[in-house]
Specification:
The complex is a heterodimer. Chain A is mainly α. The relative contact order of chain A is 0.10. Chain A starts with a helix and ends with a helix. Chain A is built from 6 helices and 1 strand, in the order H-H-E-H-H-H-H. By secondary structure, chain B is mostly helical. Chain B is built from 6 helices and 1 strand, in the order E-H-H-H-H-H-H. In chain B, helix 2 packs across helix 3 and helix 5 packs across helix 6. The radius of gyration of chain B is 17 Å and the shape is globular. The two termini of chain B are 18 Å apart. Classes of the chains: A mainly alpha, B mainly alpha. At the A-B interface, helix 1, helix 2, strand 1, helix 3 and helix 4 of A face strand 1, helix 1, helix 2, helix 3 and helix 4 of B. Strand 1 of chain A pairs parallel with strand 1 of chain B.
Chain lengths: 139, 146
Amino acid sequence: MKIVFALISGTLFGFGLALSGMTDPAKVVGFLDITGAWDPSLGFVMGCALLVSLPAFQLARRRHNARPWFADGFVWPSVKSIDWRLLAGAALFGIGWGVTGLCPGPALASLISGTPLIIGFVLAMLTGMWLHDRVLVQH
Amino acid sequence: MNIVVDPLAWQHAAIGGALIGVAAALLLWSSGAIAGVSGIFASAVLGQRTVAERGWRIAFIAGLLIGAALFALRSGGLTIHLQSAWPGMLLGGLAVGVGTRLGNGCTSGHGVCGLARLSGRSLAAVATFMGCAVLTVFVMRLAGLR
């Protein structure tokens, strides 16, 4: 059942990304270009996503004895501190996002276009993840 | 500053955003997991050796592609205007890969899920990556690279 719901969730997520315009790098750059011709539409994506996710997450956190339907408990991130890794990582991600107009979700979803440059981006992203996990940080 | 006014695009953005919120809520309440695309993708491909740990992650990533394909079938394809040539796409992809692992998340994990948890760490990450992305776009336009 976990797999079925993950598939449904991923499908809704992918459809939402495509419908909202997140899969078009030009729209993403238009949203980030606040000193040019600013296109605010992607602000509605995050705003409306939070309108749904905020109550769902707060209910899971605050309701006494709350448990997911097909798992023993909610998996909450354990790290709480704001350290250099978080900020340097977010900064690096922001630069890559600004250069390409692609973040991981839309990049994976637009693989269906078969565009070589997007396949190249995803392979470079995977290489970066591998570099971090296997070379920079030994677990 | 000029603002592009396009009510139909705003409507699509709002409905698409709400669907993403429903997707994150559904994954949380079914599996107890955070719908962070970078973390799920990295674990599916590079981490988690057991079939059970990998299965739902692979299903979620497959869903991302299926969902986009369903939209493309309905509307005659995805609109993609690329903003970079090969050097930018490869260096940008590398930066996104290292950055999302070092910072433990991307737009979905820190944005849609982290802010919904009211996490201070995620708020700091979102402010940092949004700020850096805005600055990057600004500098690239000044330098005539776009």
